[in-house]
Amino acid sequence: MNTRTVRGAFPEASGPGPPVWRWGSPRRAGPAGEQPWEGARSSAPAPRGRHGPAAVAQHSAGHTAMKREVSLFCFSPSASPSLPGCIALLIALQVHRLVAAQFRVIGPDQPVVASVGAVAVLPCRLSPATSAESMEVRWFRSRFSSVVHLYRGGRDQPGEQMQEYLGRTQLLKHNITSGSISLRIRGVRLSDCGQYTCFVQSHVSYEEALLELQVTALGSDPHVSAEGHQDGGIRMVCRSAGWHPEPEVQWRDHRGQPLPPASEKVFTDTAGLFHTEVSVVIMAESNQNVTCAVRSLFLNQEKTATISIAGTLQSKLESEKEALRSELETEKGLLQSKLESEKAALKSALESEKERRRADKAEYEAMKRTLQSKLENEKRLLQSKLEREKEALKSALESEKERRRADKGTLQSKLENEKRLLQSKLEREKAALKSALESEKERRRADKAEYEAMKRTLQSELENEKRLLQSRLEREKAALKSALESEKVKYKAVEGLTKAQRHAGRRCIPSRDRPTSPGTQRIPCGCGDCLPWP
């Protein structure tokens, strides 16, 4: 077991406080993930809570001030330059440091082993035996703030404890005056596995020790069963659950020799415990015993289960036969009892239904008589009410008739007045429309006469324009004919002159009178194909 002890002392014994600088000691490394302190700064993490970062800064500032004061005392011109005085002060400080380191925290040399669900005791003590009643005892995991259990001010402090350890830890205080500060953890879980730090702080110093808790679980006895045929043999399966760490499973024959497994399956449940399922194929002709052994290498313990192949097959057959027979008998009895119970239930239901119907019939007759009497009463009341309403309606109808007669005379007079007004209005509008129609006819006749005059004017202008265009066209046609004749005469003169120039200085020889070589150019002329004169 890797146990680490750290010592530290404050320069002033002014009460409880966090670890600070210590003078005159070699540099030491802190826990994993923390920077070492200069000088002999403790490797324990800085305490939290009342000894937080502010307290550390305060004590560091005090320590720096003390060093400055010592330096000024030794080298100030106003102070006494006596060397023995400085030496005496340094010796006093060193003695104070030595007196401050009064105890050590000691843990076990080997890991503490506990089973899942059991109780684990993490031993821790002070050496020499010193009472820890007035000290702070802090059990924590990887970080100083991950409090497993905190004892401070003479009592436990569950408010600073991690949630998963609430109600499961107990600081054993029966020997706390002798320096025993062991921690008990009830209901051990797999998550409890790992390193723990036992940290103790007095008014003038602090110490800590590391120890490890290993959690194990011894699983259930192996359960062996035959599950069908495979590869010409019988497939035997061994199952076991609740192991930690992962166990080793082995099949052995009647001589204790290992058998090769056909399949292996290992998985963990929600609690992190291992479940194993290993199968082996045993030949059908074998009638020897086979054993399944599940072994915990960590605990050096194993659990076994032995089964006979022949006995297994026979017992399985008999058990299946007996199970089928018992199941058949059970099913038969259940069906009979169910039939009888259903028959009795139907009978009772039928009788109750008959009784209910008789009661319903009697109730119906009583209700019928009651309703008939109520109906007669209602009928008489309605008849009397109807007679009253009929008389009231008759009187209202007569008054309405009189009112309507009066209204009819008024409406007729109004209608006659409206009719006369409309007739006079219609006559006026008819006369106005007639006058407007006559004026429109006169306007259209005037427009028609104007259109006819305009039409005759346009026709005469069109005829004049047509005659002018025809005379102009004739003049242009005569001019084009005279120009064409002059152009023909010019072309003939030019063509004659061109032919005379083409044959100047050449003699025309018909091609048939002279042989020609390939490639000789022929020149067309007026007398046929000609060759150039040599």
How is the secondary structure organized here?
Blueprint: H1 53-75, H2 83-100, E1 104-106, E2 112-115, E3 120-122, E4 125-127, E5 136-140, E6 147-152, E7 155-156, E8 169-171, E9 183-185, E10 194-201, E11 206-216, E12 223-230, E13 233-243, E14 248-252, E15 258-259, E16 263-268, E17 274-283, E18 289-296, E19 301-308, H3 309-502, E20 523-525, E21 528-530
Residue share in helix: 40-55%
Query: Could you tell me the radius of gyration in angstroms?
Result: 66 Å
Number of strands: 21
Beta-strand share of residues: 15-25%
A few lines on this structure:
The chain is α+β, with helices and mostly antiparallel strands. 44% of the residues lie in helices and 22% in strands.
Note down, in words, how this protein is organized.
This protein is an alpha+beta fold and 534 residues long. Among the domains are: 49-216, Immunoglobulins (Immunoglobulin-like, Sandwich), CATH 2.60.40.10; 224-309, Sandwich (Immunoglobulin-like); 505-534, no CATH class. Helices cover 44% and strands 22% of the residues. The protein is built from 3 helices and 21 strands. The protein has helices at residues 53-75, 83-100, 309-502; strands at 104-106, 112-115, 120-122, 125-127, 136-140, 147-152, 155-156, 169-171, 183-185, 194-201, 206-216, 223-230, 233-243, 248-252, 258-259, 263-268, 274-283, 289-296, 301-308, 523-525, 528-530. The strands form 6 sheets. Strands 2-11-10-5-6-7 form a 6-stranded mixed beta sheet, with no helix packed on it. It has a 4-stranded antiparallel beta sheet with strand order 12-13-17-16. Strand 10 (194-201) and strand 11 (206-216) form a beta hairpin. The protein is extended, with a radius of gyration of 66 Å. The chain starts with 52 loop residues before the first helix and ends with a strand.
